[in-house]
Amino acid sequence: MSIQLESGAPGGPIQDSWDTYRFDTALVNPNNKRRFELLVVGTGLAGAAAAASLAQLGYQVKAFTFHDSPRRAHSIAAQGGINAAKNYKNDGDSVYRLFYDTVKGGDFRARERNVYRLAQVSVNIIDQCVAQGVPFAREYGGLLDNRSFGGAQVSRTFYARGQTGQQLLLGAYSALMEQVAKGTVTLFPKAEMLDVVTKDGRACGIITRNLQTGSIESHSGHAVLLCTGGYSNVFYLSTNAMNCNVTAAWRAHRKGAAFANPCFTQIHPTCIPASDEFQSKLTLMSESLRNDGRIWVPRDPDDKRPARQVPEPERDYFLERRYPAFGNLVPRDIASRAAKREVDSGHGVGQLGNGVYLDFSEAIGRLGEAVVRERYGNLFEMYERITDESPYQTPMRIYPAPHYAMGGLWVDYSLMTTVPGLYALGEANFSDHGANRLGASALMQGLADGYFVIPYTVGSYLSTLLGQAAVPTTDPVFAEARASVTSEVDRWLSTKGTHSVDHYHRELGKIMWENCGMARNRVGLEKAITELPQLREDFRNNVRVLGQNESVNQSLEKVARVDDFFELGELMCRDALHREESCGGHFREEHQTDEGEAKRDDEHFAYVGAWEWSGHGEPQVLHQEPLEFDYVKLTQRSYK
Amino acid sequence: MNVTVRVWRQEDAGSAGRFETHQLDDISADMSFLEMLDVLNERLIEAGREPVAFDSDCREGICGTCGLMINGQAHGPAEATATCQLHMRKFSEGDTITIEPWRAAAFPIMRDLIVDRSPLDAVIEAGGFISADTGGAPDANLIPVPKTVSDAAMDAAACIGCGACVAACPNSAGQLFTSAKLAHLNLVPQGQAQRWERTIDMVETMEAFFGSCTNYGECEKACPKGISIDFIAYMNRDFVKAKMKNRKLIGQKFP
Ligand SMILES: Cc1cc2nc3c(=O)[nH]c(=O)nc-3n(C[C@H](O)[C@H](O)[C@H](O)COP(=O)(O)OP(=O)(O)OC[C@H]3O[C@@H](n4cnc5c(N)ncnc54)[C@H](O)[C@@H]3O)c2cc1C
């Protein structure tokens, strides 16, 4: 099979692309919509929004999640906010500026026309969410409030205290549940997708395992939408929820979907540093804190005094010093690397020397404690609960941690992967953030994909299937896929090794963090590429999964996910090795400016790198989608 | 530190359960409670014994997936804290800690510490939404919402749906959860059109699954998000009003 990477975005003025697409697309009439069955895997922002919107249009929808309820999806944990080009603040924002900021913030590795559409529909998202009752923060006059986020000089971020993702997801979930009540969506909680089924090269269904009973089931549909989130847990320690994984996307990859830019992962600058080896995850402190918090380290690496006793002149506010224009609000990749530099040079603070300070004393002096409490109270409480220190009294200690995956399944302008009928939405796709995502843009993208893009684009594929029934689950393609899932389950249960799944996941994470984390180089990547298959071999022969398939078995759930992470990790390293440039979150030490900033190579690498599966143990084949920049000027990003 | 844990083990919904006791040495006080259970599980697996099944996901106190009865308290001894954010420093050297699943007729035990909380979703399905199909919404700033109203709605909307309120209630009542979800929507202007219908539907569905509220107040105490019991009073008021209003509305339909 040869893969064609055609974006399919209409030409002409970028402002008209989306209108042109919508006008040119064949519509499916309401009577025919009822005859199409759509499988939506994942009920986070992208999945819940898509499932609800498609059901409202009249399609028959089945929605799957491995969680016990759709509202537990990882989207719930997003804190800071969601961007939209509303320009409610009259500070010069516009669709064009949001578009420009996003392409630039992504270090010029995203597709312009997708990003432009994202900026266009951003305004509808806020309207939609408010209509559902999402309690965004408001000003005293009753209008919506905004804050600013990294990588932008305007205030365009809408928020609901420190729980924006929660409130947006509850909104999408309630819309979904309304459709469940109407019978237009059938919900399958505790159902984990373990394979995509294809027939004649098209997606025609999925195989799921019921996490309660172990039963392995087939579901067929005219199209399959993967809205299954990101893969940062390949690093073991990350800010993602414990159960986030790449399995759905990876199984799709193995069935022919190209995987794009896997090495583009984001390390978030403001997380609580690890405290011991049993740490199970890292906790994010919202980027919004950088609005009012100032980041510093003591000038003298040997200065071990408590923060409050270090006099002003002996503090180094390194972001404000190095980036006077954006200061503490530089984009994430830049803030993360700057913190790493301080810690690597011995300036780190805290008992393990593994953090930098994020200090609110100036803000408390300027605004008063009450205002600071109103803005960040719940985040401060969370910090105190974890560390036993109060940010009102002493600065927070923070350090970067893996957070978001810009890479993901390659999709065209309609969000379809390289497998016809198989779509990817939300964090699971690679589309809009290039090599670095700006804060508050993931929620925007997930909801844009689900509410406003897929309801239009899926029609263009379905209209080619008019009058055709979905492939029945009695078709041999389903039996074959079910058999392979069953034999995999049996394989893990009969391995009877010695180490737990977590043991291997931790080891995998260490290799990835050391060699494919915040900074990468050839030697490290090559080392990882030899070590990973060895560790995987050991894992496959010596992992211990106790218990049985027919009841709740959490080791069994995890083992398949970790197995997929191994293969993904190797691909990430290969991708990082081939991309001989630094851009966004991908920092190759060999490619930096004299000042230590990322050095892109537009001449050779202004493309999306999409990898095609070629079988277990065989290196994937690279395909390129060249990126054209007709609107945004390619420059070296400067936030000075 | 060293602690002893008595943990509930149960094969599945149909089997009888029992406590199992384990001695855990060398636990760090900075560990979270669930990390302590992770360590217990590692040691069990090493010894060839099946790990204890328990639910958790975000481990930041927001997804509402985790939830354990710890020494008889839902989410344990720390106030307004979900199990995943409880740290071992809240316990003392040599403590014996009893760990059980949520216990309520509406939440059958699926295995060990995992229960089925789907009745909470059933309450939402009954009416916990504002019907606003995608695409038809007016500009977000068209309807100003007084800050106090929006803040009150947010106080209610902060509920994470963990079910601790039900587990803590001697009657296994679902009032705090239902009232928080209902108040969020009934307070804001966008929620008015369906207010009375929603109230009846949600309350009646709640009653089909959960016990009655007799004002113990244990729910508020157990809530990891500090949801106020005042919302229950608000819901009761709306329920009475809804009974009246709905009758009037029917009257208007057939003048
Ligand atoms: C701590 C934190 C804070 C964040 N804050 C912000 C912020 O302030 N602003 C912002 O814009 N972004 C933020 N992000 C990023 C943002 O939250 C995510 O990128 C986004 O929510 C992802 O949404 P999603 O719908 O793509 O996936 P998710 O919400 O991760 O949902 C994935 C869904 O897929 C299901 N699933 C996965 N695999 C399978 C399978 N095999 N079978 C069945 N179901 C499956 C899951 O059950 C779940 O329902 C934050 C992220 C983190 C970690």
Distance, first to last CA of chain A: 47 Å
State the shape of chain B: elongated
Mind telling me the C-alpha Rg of chain B? 21 Å
Number of helices of chain A: 17
Q: Please state the oligomeric state of the protein chains shown.
A: heterodimer
The share of residues in extended strands of chain A comes to 5-15%
The description of the largest β-sheet of chain B is: 5 strands, mixed
The CATH H-level superfamily of the domain at 267-403 in chain A is: Succinate dehydrogenase/fumarate reductase flavoprotein, catalytic domain
Largest sheet of chain A: 5 strands, parallel
Please state the second-level CATH architecture of the domain at 267-403 in chain A: Alpha-Beta Complex
The averaged pLDDT of chain B comes out at: 96
Low-confidence sequence ranges of chain B? none
Order of helices and strands of chain B: EEHEEEEEHHHHHHH
Structural class of chain A: alpha+beta
Number of strand segments of chain B:
7
Helix percentage range of chain A: 25-40%
CATH topology of the largest domain in chain B: Fumarate Reductase Iron-sulfur Protein, Chain B, domain 2
Poorly predicted ranges of chain A (pLDDT <50, ≥5 residues)? Answer: none
Average of pLDDT of chain A: 96
